[in-house]
Amino acid sequence: MNFPPIHMDHMDVKIPFGDLMLNILYVRFGYFYSSFREHAHSNKSYELHFIPQGQGTLVANGQRYPISANTLFMTGPDVTHEQITNPEDPMAEYCICFEVIGDIEGLANKTTKEQDLAHMADIVVRTPFWIGQDTQQMLPLFQQLAHETTQQHIGYYSMVIGIIEQLIIRLVRNYTSNQPSLRPVQLKTLDDNRLVIIENSFLGEYATITLQSLADRLGLSVRQTERTLKSRYGVSFTQKRQQARMSAAAYFLATTPMSVSRIAEQTGFATLEHFSQTFKKLYGITPSAYREHHKLS
């Protein structure tokens, strides 16, 4: 089955949801012909993933979950996750990334509609991780969203907002009908698309990224960039880059036949000795031992 593409990165889409505002950072569709290595978003964002086709495995906070057609899952604040595709049946995925602006307030003195929206918003922001089979027919909405963003007929922007709102409602209905395990999290006010820029930069350019280049990309000073990383992730730029490099190294060790020396070079280390020392300090074992214990079957 062919699925129409979606690639919304720069639309200014903000959806009121009770006392909160959902700021849609991007909506995308794609196929996983190779696995997507381990990474985590900050405590600033949520990602809705819907798999209409294909098979694979989700590794979330160390736990493995099988993925098949019609799987729906949410990866929210600080949920470390990796998507391993089945090369014989690659996963297709619709993904919506959004940040939540505002604070949840009490339900007193609200209309029925306001109470309903506030209750749904509370469930969304307090569910950092959930996985299950979609029971709410979300695929037709994604297909309609793809049609609207591709054709862009008059009124399409309003249609896009309405469709995404319906997708969030159906997400919450999936949670409640399938009895999710909720874990309270602290709601924080989120910023703009700088969050996506930071995470994509470390995810894709861990070997070469510099503090100055990241600052230039964000439109901030070096000092502001350091301060932003510290407040969002609790680490410095150097620590964040090292985490990203080590995560990539662990992925390469477990999933590729690449030599340890080549992995050291690929992840930005000048010497094999420095790479091995850094890796052992973080993981407690040498890169070769890690490969032996974590190699995918």
UniProtKB/TrEMBL annotation:
Transmembrane segments: none annotated. The keyword Translocase does not apply. Keywords: DNA-binding, Transcription, Transcription regulation. SUPFAM superfamilies: Homeodomain-like (SSF46689), Regulatory protein AraC (SSF51215). PROSITE patterns: HTH_ARAC_FAMILY_1 (PS00041), HTH_ARAC_FAMILY_2 (PS01124). The keyword Transcription applies. Residues 192-293 form the HTH araC/xylS-type domain. This is AraC-like protein. It comes from Paenibacillus prosopidis.
